[in-house]
Amino acid sequence: MNVFLAIDLGAGSGRVIAGETDNKDLRLEEIHRFDNPGTDLPGGSFWNLVGLFRDIQEGLRIAQSRYGKRIVAIGIDTWGCDFGLLDAHGRLLGLPHQYRDPRHEGMAEAMEKLMPEAEVYRHTGITSNFYNSSLHLLAEKKIDSPALAAATDLLFVPDILAYWLCGKKAVERTVASTSQLLDPGTGDWSWDVIDALGLPRDIFGEIVAPGTVLGPLRTEVARVTGLEGVPVVASASHDTASAVAGIPMEGDDRLWLSSGTWSIMGLETAEPIRTDEALAARCCNELGVDGSVRFLKNIAGLWLIQECRRQWAIEGEELGYAELARLAGEADPLTAFIDPDDPIFAAPGDMPGRIRDYCAKTGQTVPETKGRILRVATESLALKYRVVLERFRSLSGKSFDRLHAGGGGIQNTFLAQSTADAAGIEVVAGPVEATSCGNLIVQMIATGHLPDLAAGRKLIRDSFEFQTYTPRDTATWDEAYERFRKLL
């Protein structure tokens, strides 16, 4: 059985995952897990990319000791937007800033004066958000950054790590599409936006499609890891692009949900949707595998429940996620609602207290027990999914009768069932490791072990268990939805 290695990095931790496969079955094993904490330094908040690279090499070394010459390829996926600048000698000009770095403050307003958001959206299909690469580059320009002046290449985080592994500089298309600097219709840089912001054209280099083989590991990396000659593949380098590729979807109405700390709901489409209505709904067009577009909307996710759990642990009571789901399931249903995306819930802190305060301020029954607090949070999140679903129906002209959900959040069965109930459609949940699965099948396609994305999704469908949730008591949930909409 061949082995493919997925390097999966999140904004908190990273992993090296081995996918062992005979092209009929796919098995996953976590080889190495490591922390990825951001660090506040004089001058801003940064990622320790050198430390990450060291941990990646350690994971590859462990993988080689277990699988040896059966390892076929390596691919990387990470969060989007964050980038580094390189000089003519390929040297990184400082550590990459985190997307939450405060240098973005005031940049949306500055960009609006250079090119209105509506025009930017027509070019890029991306709304203006604090994490956009465009705003962070504009911030560098505003301070006459020496790094920007000296740079010859801009690479996003997965591109930098791939370059360090194999020596090939290239920008992978799915991660570039998060930047607000790429045209999702052409798949190339949006030069009109780049020029309007006054950014230097020459730093925006070659864009490659997901599934491009970049080349073998550098001699120095091969010596450290023992993986001589193993190629690095520019997989679907944005983690959400990998997650969507890893969710087996069939038919034309491809509605998906990547469920985790934060939720992303979207459509897999052939063309971007860049209408005024889509902009008003704050939907974005990012690129996926096989020429697809991910038309999506960010939504709060299990963050609400995780923060409740953390607060109760601070107060002295440790509760597992299974216990939290049980408490929510036993509480009275549909007693009160919150808007999960209200800014009051965005920052870490006393989430149970904030939920109670929100209900009190909106004249609703205040949840006092842990079970009721969790139920309010879970049912509100499910109803918010329905709000987004209705927007997608309006914008796409499609009805949708099935939601394909993947990611760690689907392990919360109470949320999955509530989603089916609230949205009134079937929810097919799986796989939990959608991101790693997507990363792996793109590598398999790139190296000729699978013919196409459809075959990769069939491999995933045949290899993992899926749970189907059907809607219940639709009349009660329809009434709850009307109450929820009035609250919003």
Automatic annotation (TrEMBL):
Keyword list, A-Z: ATP-binding, Disulfide bond, Kinase, Nucleotide-binding, Rhamnose metabolism, Transferase
Stored InterPro entries: ATPase_NBD (IPR043129), FGGY_C (IPR018485), FGGY_N (IPR018484), Rhamnulokinase (IPR013449)
Source domain of life: Bacteria
Pfam families associated with the record: FGGY_C, FGGY_N
UniProt KW Heme keyword: no
Signal peptide limits: none
Domain Carbohydrate kinase FGGY N-terminal: 4-245
Start and end residues of each Carbohydrate kinase FGGY C-terminal domain: 257-446
GO MF terms, alphabetically ordered: kinase activity
Family: Belongs to the FGGY kinase family.
UniProt name for this protein: L-rhamnulose kinase
Originating organism: Haloferula helveola
